[in-house]
Amino acid sequence: MTPSGQQWYVVQTHPHAEGKAVVHLRRQGFEVYLPRYAKRRRHARRVEVMASPLFPRYLFVAIDLIHQRWRVIRSTVGVANLVCSGDEPAPIAGDVISRLKRREDSKGCVQLDLAPRFSAGDVVRVVDGAFSDCLGLFESMNDDERVLVLLDLLGRKVRVTMSMDTIEAA
């Protein structure tokens, strides 16, 4: 529950229009929260880190259903719909927003758990780089999102360190 009887609700936006919806909802006086995370994007052999929506096409808005004209949210630029249960907006659990905000870093990005997607011995395929399309065995992951993979090259097992985003399940 936020101050003055407001509760948090979920708004669905049009594709790639989260930022536009935030601007227009704030202009109408609503408190809005768009959680973001640091996304690594590979393009033209460069890796960029950019803030991307944690829940693409969704954001949160605090509404006092009694005192605010909440129905205008549906016709706001960038908004596709307000998630409802019947005719009324469906509130989310009160601590969801506070738990997300507690996980934010100094740049406002939610810190995600970096648990490895693979366990030791899983067969993986390299999808980028010099060893593209090679199969290997996942060994482990170190602290800075680098993984150790055993590749079979020229009849020998070779341990290679690479970025986590360059492998996928085979």
Observed structural traits:
four-stranded antiparallel β-sheet; Alpha-Beta Plaits; 11% helix; SH3 type barrels; mainly beta; 2 helices; five-stranded antiparallel β-sheet
Question: What does this protein look like?
Answer:
- With 170 residues, the protein is mainly beta.
- The chain has 2 domains: 3-102, NusG, N-terminal domain (Alpha-Beta Plaits, 2-Layer Sandwich), CATH 3.30.70.940; 123-169, SH3 type barrels.
- 11% of the residues lie in helices and 41% in strands.
- The chain has 2 helices and 13 strands.
- It has a 5-stranded antiparallel β-sheet with strand order 12-11-10-9-13, with no helix packed on it. A 4-stranded antiparallel β-sheet has the order 2-5-1-6, covered by helices on one side.
- The chain is elongated.
- The chain starts with 6 loop residues before the first strand and ends with a strand.
- Keywords: Transcription, Transcription antitermination, Transcription regulation.
- This is Transcription antitermination protein RfaH.
Q: Would you identify the CATH architecture of the largest domain? A: 2-Layer Sandwich
Strand order of the largest sheet: 12-11-10-9-13
The H-and-E topology, N to C, reads as EHEEEEEEEHEEEEE
Number of strands: 13
Question: What level of helicity do the residues show?
Answer: 10-25%
**Tally of individual helices:** 2
Task: Name the structural class.
Answer: mainly beta
Structural domain count: 2
* Chain-averaged pLDDT: 87
Share in β-strands: 35-45%
Distance between the termini: 45 Å
Main sheet, how many strands, which sense, barrel? 5 strands, antiparallel
Can you tell me the CATH class of the largest domain? Alpha Beta
| Unreliable residue stretches | none
CATH third-tier fold name of the largest domain? Alpha-Beta Plaits
**Looking at this structure, what is the CATH superfamily of the largest domain?**
NusG, N-terminal domain
